[in-house]
Amino acid sequence: MTSAVACVGALFLTIGCGRGAVSPAVSPTAVPVPTLTRKAGPPHRMFGTVTTGSVPVADAEIAELETVFGDDCFTPRELSGTRSDPSGSYVLPAVTDSSTSTWASWVRAYKAGYFTDFERPRVSQDMRLDFTLDPWTHVSLGQSIHGTVDRGDPVCRGNSYGLPGFCHRFAITVPTSGTLDVTLTWPNVRPDVVLDVVRPGGVPCALFSWPGRTQHNLKIVAEAGATYEVRVVDDGNASPLTYELTTSMR
């Protein structure tokens, strides 16, 4: 996928996709940034189920999130939210219409112990949207991970990188408070590589690459005992992506 396609509407994503490889430490109380104005029709009803395998997931948090222009390390505002019932079913009664918006809607399913599932549906009427949550795959802090993202791997979605991207996902539980330092490197200069660290509560923080980059470094303010989801994403159709991922605490 070309860099122009990777950014859904280059006019709106110039800031979010053009960042450098180094990000300052980020906390969930980051300074708010301007939101993208959307032309909205009447709201719609969204419903569905949350499962892991074929087993219902109760008490998962389902929320419609506000897309933010120009920042991908922020705490997204919930436009509406609910929880799944014991059968795994949920209903969001008033999801924003996105039929004429630049952005598709952004919906999240979160429950501790599972990788957060972000979806980007185009909402123009009442609709069903099911979520599948996969259990965390834990790796140790400080472990060096070598891998190749390719077709057939899980698909990740985010804020600006709303196009589906094959990904590898890892869960890291930090023993002490401090700064979680995550570094992703890949051998060849190429666009469309995303490093996304999802903080507790399903709060993402992503870095994107343009041609000329072979490394991302992301620093996150971390709390002792909390678990962070680290995602290596090939944003589009440029697979395979060979990489090395390292983590440390400072």
**Count of alpha and pi helical runs:** 2
Question: Which CATH class of the largest domain?
Answer: Mainly Beta
Q: What is the domain total for the residues?
A: 2
The coarse silhouette is: globular
Radius of gyration: 17 Å
Average pLDDT works out at 84
Give me the CATH architecture of the largest domain, please: Sandwich
* Share in β-strands: 35-45%
Please state the structural category: mainly beta
In short:
By secondary structure, this protein is mainly beta. It has helices spanning 3-6, 10-17; strands at 44-52, 55-56, 61-65, 78-83, 89-95, 106-110, 117-119, 127-128, 131-132, 145-149, 155-156, 165-173, 178-185, 193-198, 206-208, 215-222, 227-234, 241-249.
What are the key terms here?
single chain, 5-stranded mixed β-sheet, 40% strand, Jelly Rolls, 5% helix, 2 domains, Immunoglobulin-like
Protein architecture, described:
With 250 residues, this protein is mostly beta strands. It folds into two domains: 3-28 and 136-249, Jelly Rolls; 44-132, Immunoglobulins (Immunoglobulin-like, Sandwich), CATH 2.60.40. Helices cover 5% and strands 40% of the residues. It contains two helices and 18 strands. The strands form four sheets. Strands 1, 2, 5, 8 and 9 form a five-stranded mixed sheet that branches. Strands 11-12-17-14-15 form a five-stranded antiparallel sheet, with no helix packed on it. It is globular, with a radius of gyration of 17 Å. The termini are far apart.
Summarize the helices and strands and which ones pair or pack.
Elements: H1 3-6, H2 10-17, E1 44-52, E2 55-56, E3 61-65, E4 78-83, E5 89-95, E6 106-110, E7 117-119, E8 127-128, E9 131-132, E10 145-149, E11 155-156, E12 165-173, E13 178-185, E14 193-198, E15 206-208, E16 215-222, E17 227-234, E18 241-249
Parallel strand pairs: 1-8, 1-9
Antiparallel strand pairs: 1-2, 1-5, 3-4, 3-6, 6-7, 10-18, 11-12, 12-17, 13-16, 13-18, 14-15, 14-17
